[in-house]
Write a structure and sequence with these properties.
InterPro entries: DUF6069 (IPR045713). It is a single chain. Strand 10 and strand 11 form a beta hairpin. The protein has 249 residues and is α+β, with helices and mostly antiparallel strands. The chain folds into 2 domains: 109 residues, Jelly Rolls (Sandwich), CATH 2.60.120; 131 residues, no CATH class. Helix 2 packs antiparallel against helix 6, helix 3 runs antiparallel to helix 4 and helix 4 packs antiparallel against helix 6. The longest helix is centred in the middle third of the chain and has 32 residues.
């Protein structure tokens, strides 16, 4: 038995002669299996086990920044005898690389005890998103009402229209839902969903500040609109980032 430490972004090749009967358990962080053809395999979280047979998996990679640890157990190394490569009953059905032959089974993976499945993670994220969206709508609408109370008219020169309070609520709700959808997509397909969502949301927030600046409205209206763009961002981004980080660990 030995412990393999993979620093952030590190990649360790799987040597067939040394890993033929190896069984690994992720004890810290996350580890991604790399297939023989170079394609990325499943990402395994803490307490997830994998069984290597043949050369179906050619490397282990740490997709995160923090160090990951894998405990490697190779049956038969002390006695010099080889044991059967049949996985124990506690391990789930073999996950196979369809690109390889049936004799080159890649790995066996099973969900970690106490870890939630993907549908449960998505439902949890959706629940957080709904609560955060409602909070963002209320906070933005109240902020807009306060701005009106101190004399901001929210009049846009192009067309001479005044933005109603209901308009702030609708727009905030729509783009907040868009943020939840982006977060769900990253949770489903990204190896680092929290980090990528933070960068994506910050970039979109910065872009959203451009229209008020070029609207031609008076200074008070422009200042208020900029602030009202930042209010929902301050609510949604931290809430969804925390939720992604919790559900992806």
């Amino acid at each position: 038995m030995r412990t393999l430490a993979l620093r952030g972004g590190a990649r360790v090749p799987v040597v067939a002669a040394e890993w033929t009967d190896a069984f690994g358990v992720v004890t810290r962080g996350r580890v991604q299996l790399e297939l023989r053809d170079g394609e990325p395999g499943p990402v395994l979280g803490r307490d997830a086990g994998f069984w290597l047979r043949g050369t179906g998996v050619r490397a282990l990679r740490n997709p995160d920044r923090r160090t990951a640890r894998v405990r490697i157990v190779t049956p038969g190394t002390r006695t010099g005898t080889r044991r059967s490569t049949t996985p124990p009953a506690s391990v789930a059905e073999p996950w196979r690389n369809d690109m390889n032959s049936m004799n080159d089974t890649g790995a066996v993976t099973g969900p970690a005890p106490g870890r939630t499945s993907r549908p449960h993670r998505l439902r949890g994220l959706a629940g957080t998103g709904v609560i955060a969206t409602l909070a963002a709508v209320v906070a933005t609408t109240l902020a807009a009402a306060s701005a009106k109370a101190v004399g901001v008219d929210f009049e846009i020169p192009d067309g001479g229209e005044t933005i109603p309070l209901s308009g702030f609520a609708v727009v905030t709700g729509f783009f907040s839902v868009v943020g939840v959808v982006i977060a769900a997509a990253l949770l489903r397909w990204s190896a680092r969903p929290a980090e990528r969502f933070g960068w994506t949301a910050a970039s979109l927030t910065a872009i959203s500040l451009v229209p008020p600046l070029i609207s031609g409205a008076d200074t008070a209206t422009i200042t208020a609109l900029l602030g009202l763009h930042l209010v929902p961002a301050a609510v949604m981004i931290p809430a969804l980032t925390r939720s992604l980080r919790t559900r992806s660990d």
